[in-house]
Amino acid sequence: MTSPVIPPPVEDLDLYQRRDRNIKESAIGYALLFCAFVSVLTTVAIVYVLASETVSFFGKVNIGEFLFGKTLENGSYSCSWTPQFADKGFCVWPTVNGTMMVALIAMLVATPLGLATAVYLSEYATPKVGKFLRPIIELLAGVPTVVYGYFALTFITPILSKIIPGLNGFNALSAGLIMGVMIIPTIASISTDAMLAVPRSLREAAYGLGSTKKEVATTVVFPAALSGICAAIILGISRAVGETMIVAIAAGQRPVLTLDPRQTVGTMTAYIAQVAKGDSRVGSVEYQALFAVGMTLFLITLLLNIISKQISKRFQETYE
Q1: Can you list the alpha helix ranges (DSSP code H) found in 120-164?
Q2: How many Å is the maximal CA-CA distance in the chain?
Q3: Which residues 6+ apart lie within 8 Å of 62 measured at CB?
Q4: How sure is the predictor about 104, in pLDDT bands with cuts at 50, 70 and 90?
Q5: For residue 66, which of 91, 36, 98, 33 has the smallest C-alpha distance?
Q6: pLDDT tens digits, residue range 176-192?
Q7: pLDDT at residue 319 in the model
Q8: What is the pTM for the complete model shown?
Q9: What is the Cα–Cα distance from 65 to 81, expressed in whole angstroms?
């Protein structure tokens, strides 16, 4: 006759279960640590490649010419970006000028439309309508940027050319307008989340004092969510500065110092895309100029992120 199996004491079961749970928690912690390490390592590797090639570039090109242009033999001043020309110029400001002009036009479109959309979704739309509209608006962010670029070139530019005299086939205005449409979902989505995070009690207190829905949205909710709204706008600027295909297709690739949005301009990302086609020999000065421009773009984006963090801390509201 076999002896019955005696189950372990309840205390031992709890010990085994706790040990298994601790092992699983430790494994998850190490997996997350590995993912974080990969992210940090990737960032460090990118910065290292940019920095090393940029240093090599400045070994061939004077940093003063890169930042301030150069004085020619006849005494005239030149600030041109023509690394692939026979008469090479490495003044970066024409590409920065084109980038900032297109980004400014885009933000003039995206900021009011994005914030107006956020106010409607958070304050005016019913929950059912909001759940229906938000995915549709965010679909704009899923459209490939090359489609936006060709849409600007083949549809927006011909329309604008009938209204605006002197508009070039490739111009900063069309690229900026379409880029603004592309950025609307970014600003609208983040701003909506920031406004919805404002406590309901603030709205109810304002309604109790006789405020209208418009007054509540503009004088109570908007100031309370200002931290998130500013972060959304700066994130939109970063997106505009780093956009490539729209400006490469619709704005052109002729970096010039101009404030006329009707003209063809060249941006930093457009030059990167142009060199990345393989027309420049690896190790050449025009190839290394790609990394110098990339480092400049990286520093601009880093500065925008720092400003975003500072503004978020400055206007952050805490509620108990």
Answers
A1: 127-138, 145-151, 157-163
A2: 113
A3: 70
A4: very high
A5: 91
A6: 999 999 999 999 999 99
A7: 55
A8: 0.83
A9: 10
What tokens were used for 61? 């090109």
Containing H/E element for 78? strand 77-78
Cα separation, 206 vs 210, in Å, equals 7
Mean pLDDT of 290-296: 89
d(CA 239, CA 308) in angstroms, rounded, equals: 13
- 211-236 pLDDT, tens digit per residue, is 888 888 888 888 888 888 888 998 89
Residue with tokens 């490539």: 244
Residue 100: partners with Cβ closer than 8 Å, 6 or more residues away? 241
Token pair recorded at residue 271: 């030059």
The residue length of the chain stands at 320
Half-sphere exposure of 197 (CA within 13 A, CB side): 18
The CA–CA distances, whole Å, from 23 to 10, 27, 31, 82 equal: 20, 6, 12, 60
**Chain position carrying tokens 């939109």:** 236
CA-CA distance, 77 to 227, in Å (whole number)? 44
Per DSSP, 249 falls in state: I
Token pair 């570039």 is at which residue? 57
User: What tokens does 248 get?
Assistant: 């490469």
Q: Is 90 helix (H, G, I), strand (E, B) or coil?
A: strand
CA dist 109 to 19, 61, 81, 233, Å? 57, 38, 29, 12
